[in-house]
Amino acid sequence: MQKYLKTKELHFGSKTFKLPTEALSYGIGLFGIALLSGWVPEYAKTYFADFAFKNQNFSSDALATLISTVFLVAGFVGAAAEIIIGFLVDKTKSKRGKIHPWLLYGCVPLGIISMLVFVAPKTSNFVVATIWMFAIYCAYVMLLVCVESPGNCFGAVCTPNPDERSDAISIAGIMRSIGQSGGMVVLIVVGLVMKAIMGEDGFRAAEGRGLDLQISTAVCVIGFILFLAIMLKNTRERVPYTTEKVNLGQSLKFVFTNKNLLMVSLAKLAGFGRGVYGAASLYIAIYLLGDKGLKLALLLPMGIGTAVSMLVVKKLIKTIGTKNTFIACSAYGAVSFLLLFGVSMIIGFRKELIIPFLIINFLVGLQNGNTNLTPNVMIADCVDEIELKTGKRQEGLCYAGYGLFSKIASAFTTSLGTYLVFKWSGYLPSTDPSVAYAAQSDGTLTRFLIIYTIIPACFVILQIIPMLFYDLNAKKKEQISLELIKRRGVVETDE
User: Rg of the chain's alpha carbons, rounded to an integer?
Assistant: First the structure.
């Protein structure tokens, strides 16, 4: 049995990768980042629409259009930032490596700006509100990229062993997936504490001002910083960075002309609409389950399904390969979304729907492990392929290239989701300062369901198309790994 040993020259870090200790620490760091990156975009939409400028007599249509535009523009700002940060990450050379410095110095500024997203100016001037919304959210997105993008790269530098790397990415990916929903738990706990302190009436009044969202944001920020500190303390970078000068133009040309990396990125872009269900999830929780805190009850089965499926996907990747895993899981995902829609329409929007809805939500979640894990494994493989062809190891730009498409996809997702929820559905925001959310018609609820199921199903099918042209199979990956072992001076022994 071949076994990878330590490289002869390591510029930094300890000599032996400790699995699962370091993989768990890596996962804890990604959990913290996901806790914040999952919370802010998800709840910033409802804060902007329902609380930030309540009773300022702004047109609900104008405000909905503004919010949709803000998230679209911010997404493109984040896409541009991905390339810049990816380039700078590859130019970073320190005793701690190329990834850790970005996490260390970016965490506090990101935490501060995240809290400021939920502190709106007291103004009745729509122009002032517009400027503030664009400025604060674009600033948040840029700082998020400074931390999230390097964090995503870490899986490619934690160990030169592809098998260890896949295991580390899998473990960390599961924890990141859980972290995406962590904010819902925070919101429930904050609400319970506020009710205990303020009483039911006092809490409702505070909720009507969005105070629970502001406190929950502060809790998420504290958790993000603490969890990231654990990763910084307990992980090391072991794949040596190359010493050649990185030319942005040449690097971008190669990264974006590498077929396999481009196909992974295009799959993300083609499937952007699969995430619009998140825009409707809060309102389905409010109007179907009866309380926004019960969004956890709505998405927890999906989250459990995601965690379970990531373990399954890990085995599928080793059995049938990354490409076949991605295609099979995507096809399953589309079917599960359609099943959820069909069952919901048959039962109708009444209390009898809740249990089957939550059960099928678990089945829907089973396909998310694929999109959370498989592309990250593919990108790490593409990093190796590019290093073999160019002699340069460019985790930063490779993940940034994917991140650019991801941010554009996220911009389209959020903008489309915001438009669908706040305009196409016929949603009516509350104008009562003591009532957080107004009643909605059955037609609006039906459209919420379509946003949650039918639209994502269509995009899940679309994301399969680019993957049909991905050709980095197991045999080719093995050949690349063996050649890189020789170049780096990695010794092989039989055991």
Answer: 23
Which region, left, alpha or beta, applies to residue 236 given φ > 0 means left and ψ of -120 to 50 means alpha?
beta
Residues 100/232, Cβ–Cβ less than 8 Å: yes
Q: Which two tokens stand for residue 9?
A: 């020259």
CA angle 462, 466, 471 (to 5 degrees): 145
User: Is 279 in contact with 414 (CB distance < 8 Å)?
Assistant: yes
Torsion angle (degrees, nearest 10) of CA 244, 245, 251, 255: 40
pLDDT tens figures, 288-305: 776 665 666 676 777 777
Average pLDDT over residues 150-172: 80
- Among 112, 161, 75, smallest CA distance to 416 is for 75
pLDDT at 291: 66
- Which pair of tokens denotes residue 434? 């003591």
Query: Does pLDDT of 177 surpass 80?
Result: no
Exposed/middle/buried for residue 238 (C-beta within 10 Å: 0-12, 13-18, 19+): buried
Indicate whether 2 pLDDT > 50.
Answer: no
Tell me the C-alpha distance between 4 and 240, whole Å.
Answer: 15
Token pair for 47: 């804060």
CA distance 11 to 157: 12
Which of the residue ranges 247-251, 312-316, 321-325 would you say has the lowest mean pLDDT?
247-251
pTM over 0.85: no
Alpha helices in 348-436 (DSSP H): 354-365, 368-390, 395-419
Tokens 């995902």 belong to residue: 333
Q: What is the number of alpha carbons within 13 Å of residue 283 lying toward its C-beta? A: 35
